[in-house]
Each structure stands twice: as C-alpha cells, then as structure tokens.
Write a structure and sequence with these properties.
- This protein has helices at about 170-175, 225-230, 250-265, 310-320, 365-375; strands spanning about 5-10, 45-50, 60-65, 85-90, 95, 100-105, 110-115, 140, 145-155, 160, 195-200, 205-210, 235-245, 270-275, 295-300, 350, 355-360, 385, 390.
- It has about 400 residues and is an alpha/beta fold.
- The protein has two domains: about 5-155 and about 330-345, Spo0b-associated Gtp-binding Protein, Chain: A, CATH 2.70.210; about 160-320, Rossmann fold (3-Layer(aba) Sandwich), CATH 3.40.50.300.
- The strands form four sheets. A six-stranded mixed sheet has the order 11-12-10-13-14-15, sandwiched between helices.
- The longest helix has 15 residues, at about 250-265.
- The radius of gyration is 30 Å and the shape is elongated.
- It starts with a strand and ends with a strand.
- The relative contact order is 0.13.
C-alpha cells in the first residue's frame, strides 16, 4: 500500500552534564578544577534518498529519539556527543510542524535537522577565577527539542497522467514504461500513484506518474482525487488521457480541467498534452474541438494495439527537456530549508552544586524545570536555588 503521509514525534537527545572534579596527583596536593564538559545531545535528522518510494517505513505515531550526550570527566575529559537519529525519506518529502512548512526535501541527499540536541553542560574548570579557585559546581546538560511533525510526500515526476477512472491510464503507462500497475475493467483500479520510467533510444529517461482517476468534485474531497491531486504539483507536464470511444471527449476534458483549477497550486496553468485513447474501439473517433494555449499536442493512441505510442514517447521527450544540472555552491550554502528552534537555548542555566542545584538567568516554567531536574538525577532533600529563593526537592 502506498503511504504519502506520516506523523511522528522527534525527540532530540539531552546534553551531558559537566563534571565537578579537581586534580589530585602525587606531589600536587591542591590541584585546581579539571572537570570536563558534557557532550551535546544528538539531533533528529531527515535525509532524502532516491531509493525510497513512499513513507511506509514510518510506523504510526513513531517516536524518533536521538542519543544523550556523554557526561564530562576528570582531567578535562569531555563527554561524547549523542548519536543522531536519522530517518531516510523519499525525495519530495515535505516536513510540517503544525501547518508551518519546515523543510522541503526536493533533492537526493537533502537533509534537515527537525529537532536539535540539547547543549552539554560546562565542567567546573570554566568557573575558576582568581577569587574562586575551587568552584564546586558545574552545569547540567539541557534537554533537546521534542516536537510533533508531519511528513507529506509529493511525487517528483516529469509527466503525470490524469483523467477520469477507466480512461486507460494504467494500460498506457504499462505500454510506454517499465511500470506494472494493476489493470482491470472497473473504475478506481488504481488506488495509489504509480511511477514508471520511459527510456529513449539515446538512453535518456523520464519519470511518468499514473495518478488515480479524478471525478467531478475531487478538489473538494469527493472520490479518490483529493488526497492525490497534490502529487500533480511537481509534474512538469500533464498528460490528459481521455476515453475517445465516448462521444463527450471535450466535456470530459473540461470536467477534469475545472477540478485542477479548483485545487489551485498552478495546475490550471500547467502545460499539457491530450491523449485520445482507445481509438481501436471506434474507427472514426470524434474530434476534440478545444483550442487552449496550454494544450501542446492532441494525440490519438491505443494502449491495446500500440497505435500512436511511438509518437507519444517522442512527444514526451520533446516537450520535457532535460533538467539543468544545479550549479556548484559553496559549502556554507544549502539547497534546502534548515529548521532551527526559535527560542534562545541559553536563556537559563542549571548548575549542579554540592547541596543540589542552582538556576541562573530567566528560569523555565515549573513543568520544564521539574523535568530537567528529574533527568539530572535530583533526589529528595536536594536544595534548588532560584535567584534568592531556596527550595527543597521533594
């Protein structure tokens, strides 16, 4: 079954705690602080891969959790960075947080950090000064981001077949490409988009998508069309397939064209060719009779007998030029969106002390602070200092 939507929870790793440690060696009775820093928590990363076809690998309500940063140690030993949680998704995957578009992974290898790991705490070495030579406190690591995200896949195809159910789109795709969709004599045989590769004599390839049949009202959620219209957005050319054995070819074209216009996203402005299919069923198929600047060609073919298919292949390669190779860019530039949390991740700090914990800066909310202290190992009786206030952890 084809999956083009998925929801999951991205939980980045917590930063490791800084170390409270002092140098203790023979002949060095009063060594200074040498507590190392905690490692940063791992990120949750999505990567686009051309070998993936849909989002079926994402489990329902999956929680993607990155690794925690390692704690600092003595002798200025820093903790290891937490392991990233990497999810491979198909090219064309869009990432949403609520209704906000976070990233559009439109190229192979594109990657985005959807949840950033928490910052590791600094060891007590950082807090030594001429007036404070033995700091007996260190920072604890901050929690990583945790958020609900939704993945929506929009197929990347050079051309997309559209039309009413049973117009012969699947049979046509079978004859001109390497795709093998299910074909039957009843409407809505195709329940999910199917991709096929069409190859020319010189080795060039095009990707053609067969989208489930559209009916009147598809843009409003009627039939199967609503959830699959989005897969037409990135097609460079629309191939409108019409059953020419019927006498209302022009009216069938107008019906689907109206649904494309109602859906929006520029589909009503997309270049297209019209395919009058099943010419073998009627020796003299009716003329199409529609003049429209968007229609590049009107072809008569038969998926059953193969008539006109060579002309169709040639037309596809003629009207869909090869994509230009992207220019090389500097390392610091990226061709995809990169999401960074809006909040200042250092608006407060939590220190571990000999008596418990101390919070500096703008303290977080009660629930957030409680979660941080619990993760840091707070125990009953520990003192929590917030500004001038001292509380006892229960």
């Amino acid at each position: 079954m084809f999956h083009d939507q998925a929801k999951l929870t991205a939980a980045a790793g917590r930063g490791g705690d800084g170390s409270i440690h002092f140098r203790r060696e023979k002949y060095v009775p009063r060594g200074g602080p040498d507590g190392g820093d905690g490692g940063d928590g791992g990120d949750v990363v999505l990567v686009a891969d051309g070998r993936k076809r849909d989002l079926s690998g994402v489990r329902p309500n999956q929680k993607l959790r990155a690794g925690r940063g390692g704690g600092g140690g003595g002798r200025l030993s820093n903790g290891a960075r937490g392991e990233d949680a990497v999810l491979v998704v198909p090219i064309g995957t869009q990432v949403f947080a609520g209704e906000e578009l976070v990233a559009d992974l439109a190229r192979a290898g594109a990657r985005v950090v959807v949840a950033a790991g928490g910052t590791g705490g600094r060891g007590n070495k950082h807090f030594a000064s001429p007036t404070r030579q033995t700091p007996r406190f260190a920072e604890i690591g901050l929690p990583g981001d945790e958020k609900e995200i939704e993945l929506r896949l929009k197929l990347l195809a050079d051309a997309a077949l559209v039309g009413h159910p049973n117009a012969g789109k699947s049979s046509l795709l079978t004859r001109i490409s390497n795709a093998r969709p299910k074909v039957a004599e009843y409407p809505f045989t195709t329940l999910s988009p199917v991709l096929g590769t069409v190859e020319s004599s010189d080795g060039r390839q095009l990707v053609v998508a067969d989208v489930p049949g559209l009916i009147e009202g598809a843009s409003e959620g009627i039939g199967l069309g609503h959830e699959f219209l989005a897969h037409l957005e990135r097609a460079r050319l629309l191939v409108h397939v019409i059953d020419s054995s019927e006498d209302d070819a022009a009216e069938r074209w107008r019906t689907i064209d109206a649904e494309l216009a109602a859906y929006g996203a520029g589909l009503d402005e997309r270049r297209q060719i019209v395919i009058l299919n099943k010419i073998d069923l009627k020796p003299e198929p009716p003329s199409f009779g529609i003049e429209d600047e968007r229609i590049e060609r009107v072809l008569r073919v038969s998926a059953a007998t193969g008539a006109g298919l060579d002309e169709l292949r040639g037309t596809l390669f003629e009207l869909v030029p090869p994509e230009e190779e992207p220019e090389e860019v500097a390392d610091e530039m990226v061709d995809f969106l990169f999401y960074r949390p809006g909040a200042d991740r250092r608006r407060y700090r939590v220190f571990r002390t000999e008596r418990g914990f101390r919070v500096t800066g703008k303290p977080p909310g009660e629930e957030e602070l409680e979660a941080i202290l619990r993760a840091a190992g707070a125990r009953a009786g520990d003192t929590v200092e917030i500004g001038e206030e001292q509380l006892e952890w229960e």
